[in-house]
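User: Please predict the structure of the protein below. I'd like the answer in structure-token form so I can feed it into my own downstream comparison script.

Assistant: Understood. Taking the following sequence of 373 residues as input:
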Amino acid sequence: MDLGMRSRTGRRAFLPALAAIITWLAPAAFSATLLVTNPEPAVCVTSEDAVFEYTWGTLRPQTGLFSFSPPGLPALAPVVHAPRSAGPGDLVRVLVTEDEELDSLSAQILDSRQHVMFQGVGFRPESASPGHWVVLVGISSEIPKGEYSLRVTAQAGARSVMFLSPVSVVERLFRFERIPLNTDLTTLRTEKDPRKTAEAKEMARVLTTPHADAIFEEGTILVPLAGARRTSGYGDRRKYVYADNSADYSVHEGLDIASPAGTPVPACGRGKVVLAGSRIMTGNTVIIEHLPGLFSIYFHLSEITVRPGDVVAEGDIIGKVGMTGLATGPHLHWEIQALGVPIDPVALASGPILDRDADFGDIGTAKDPKGGE
């Protein structure tokens, strides 16, 4: 056991007792075995590329894979694939293989102060083989470019794993638009109302409550009302000009599609309706969960034709175009959120949410436990 004070990059030869673990990470090897006493006694084995500080039983991981287990129990040894870069509006896919049953799996994007900015929960896709897991993490359009960290954590009984890797967020430019509001719409947007506050809290709760059994759509979603004119895009920076010429600014979180009132609105993919009702700001609203924590949202409908609990297929009609709520004309506001973070819906619709061959084709034979795309 390494019990002294050191900061290292994990290049020491592994112990023979860990040979079985090495085959799970084939052909990567663990390079260090540490006795951790804080916060509670455990054995920690690290990946070959791990960087950490270790001081008298206290471990401070920086990058790499760290597997913790009570003395005498074999360590978990997952293979993790994750991107090294992402952009505003992206859906980050973290892919994990682990032969043993996991109790929980999650991933977070951290800032330089290690504060959680975005997160996702793990699930087993229907398209993948046993032992394959996925975590979906949304990246906001408002994130500044720079260096961030990805942290993946898994738990199986008393054993746990932590994986840390740097992630670069690249710059993306967005459109600016100016939207004048008449007196009625100015009042609607600015007037304080307890009902608006309650509705906002309820929507936030719905969009941050994943359901583990919501495995409905792994393929390519469709953009509703294909061919119709798109009047506003994802991430547009907006200036609302009120009736008294004062102004306020916001970010548009979805896609606005102009269409005549009464036009049928199809579901973008298979899923379960988790909200269907009237709201002050967004009018008649429908929310569908497609995968755990991945939701599509439909605002300003003139009519709703589904109820909470309904399972819909791609193309099923869930309502009709309208201009209820804060709307200057008949249109559909269509949005995708990943555990409460709006992501680019058009980019997501450009290919399958999960591609078995592309996403899982080589994950079982990864040469580097921290993967990369």
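That's the full token string. The first helix runs from residue 19 to 24.
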